[in-house]
Amino acid sequence: MNIGVSAADEHFRQQVAQWMQEHLSGQYSELRFRGGPGDEDFAPGLRKQWERELAAGRWIGAGWAVEHGGRGLSINQQVIFYEEYARAGGPGRMGHIGEGLVGPTLATFGTPEQQQRFLPAILAGQDFWCQGYSEPGAGSDLANIKTRASFDSDSGQWLISGQKIWTSLAHESDWCFVLARTEPGSVGHRGLSFLLVPMAQAGIEVQPIRQLTGTSEFNEVFFDQARTAAENMIGQPGDGWKIAMALLGFERGVSTLGQQMQFQNELDEVVRIAKANGAAQDPIMRQRIAQAWSGLRVLRYNSLRMLSGVQDGSLRPEATIYKLAWSTWHLELGKLAMDVLGPDAELLAAAPYQLTRLQALFLFTRADTIYGGSSEIQRNIIAERALGMPREAR
């Protein structure tokens, strides 16, 4: 990728910044810098309304192909949008999973009928999605899932039974994409299928999981003969693993630059406090802040390298290191934040004793190296897929 900025790109950046300034105001002012990781349960109703505001500005799916309802923005312009969104304090996206994961997957693997059925509602900020991958005993080892689906020929529907866990915002979602075992007796990667399942039905129960931060954005989801129509399967029976892996490839897309701008906002807050309370005078603390700044730049350049090729969901070698790199960096930022705060890190000012932004950051980053594939699993992926080393003995 050419990391330079053309005059046209700079003009586009100004347009995005101006739009954010004009629209992230009034009733939406309280959303600024809210709703990110560890804070995802903040004002979900207003954030859904904000999604419709974005849709009116045609910012949802702006990087999608024109034939799928997007604006066909270049990679450079998409990067600029995500950066300016985060710089302006744009709230955590309620529609991220639909726009960033489901949409590209449907564009690549869905039928024209499926694309026409689901993509417009994502673009309009109307339908919200959650991810039905992890299970108890099948988190980082995703191929070990036990959730099963059988086809009922009388009704023309798939019947799904099982349990998913760590399902972000399941209680706020209209749909869930579910990886389920449709071939009885199959094991590992074989016999899996990719199903789109409506959440508003009697066969689905959602139970919140309370976190260290006091929030409950994660959930357990129980399926008891939950139903979805035959036409809501993406691909063919048995294609689930291929499609699931492509979706995880899309997860390492342009939005990673927006994630890094959120990290920059957090680092800026740490630096501001270090200057205010004198921690910046400590040479060791200054060195740690400099290391954090440098590490964030490395993440940025690797992301630009990831985005240099075709965005088809394939996990390029550059992409295999991203989860391990950002989660380790973010974990260390949480520690740095607490050390900069000093004794204040242990205190809450007054009732109702809610965590400060940096306290919540520290607690939530304890999980960064676990969810989305633990660091141990990430190192195996790097060794086996990127470096071609012998596979770990099973």
Which short descriptors sum up this protein?
394 residues; alpha+beta; Butyryl-Coa Dehydrogenase, subunit A, domain 1; Butyryl-CoA Dehydrogenase, subunit A, domain 2; Butyryl-CoA Dehydrogenase, subunit A, domain 3; 3 domains; four-stranded mixed β-sheet; four-stranded antiparallel β-sheet; 12 helices; 8 strands; 44% helix; globular; Acyl-CoA dehydrogenase; Mycobact_Acyl-CoA_DH
Alpha carbon gap, first and last residue: 38 Å
- Estimate the global geometry from the Cα principal axes: globular
CATH architecture designation of the largest domain: Up-down Bundle
The overall pLDDT, averaged over residues, is 91
CATH superfamily of the largest domain: Butyryl-CoA Dehydrogenase, subunit A, domain 3
Keywords: FAD, Flavoprotein, Oxidoreductase
Organism: Pseudomonas versuta
Cofactor: FAD
Family: Belongs to the acyl-CoA dehydrogenase family.
Task: Summarize, please.
By secondary structure, the chain is of the alpha+beta class.
Write the layout of secondary structure elements.
Elements (H helix, E strand, L loop, with lengths): L6 H17 L20 H13 L18 H13 L8 H14 L2 H12 L5 E4 L15 E5 L4 E8 L10 E7 L10 E7 L5 E6 L8 E12 L3 E2 L5 H12 L3 H23 L5 H24 L10 H4 L1 H20 L15 H9 L9 H12 L8
Helix pairs in contact: 1-3, 3-7, 4-5, 4-6, 7-8, 7-10, 8-10, 10-11
Commentary on this structure:
Residues 9-125 form the Acyl-CoA dehydrogenase/oxidase N-terminal domain. Residues 238-386 form the Acyl-CoA dehydrogenase/oxidase C-terminal domain. Its cofactor is FAD. By secondary structure, this protein is α+β, with helices and mostly antiparallel strands. The protein folds into three domains: 7-94, Butyryl-Coa Dehydrogenase, subunit A, domain 1; 129-238, Butyryl-CoA Dehydrogenase, subunit A, domain 2 (Beta Barrel), CATH 2.40.110.10; 252-386, Butyryl-CoA Dehydrogenase, subunit A, domain 3, CATH 1.20.140.10. 44% of the residues lie in helices and 13% in strands. The protein has twelve helices and eight strands. It has helices at 7-23, 44-56, 75-87, 96-109, 112-123, 240-251, 255-277, 283-306, 317-320, 322-341, 357-365, 375-386; strands spanning 129-132, 148-152, 157-164, 175-181, 192-198, 204-209, 218-229, 233-234. The strands form two sheets. Strands 1-4-5-8 form a four-stranded mixed β-sheet. Strands 2-3-7-6 form a four-stranded antiparallel β-sheet, with no helix packed on it. Strand 6 and strand 7 (218-229) form a beta hairpin. Helix 1 packs parallel to helix 3, helix 4 crosses helix 6 (240-251) and helix 10 crosses helix 11.
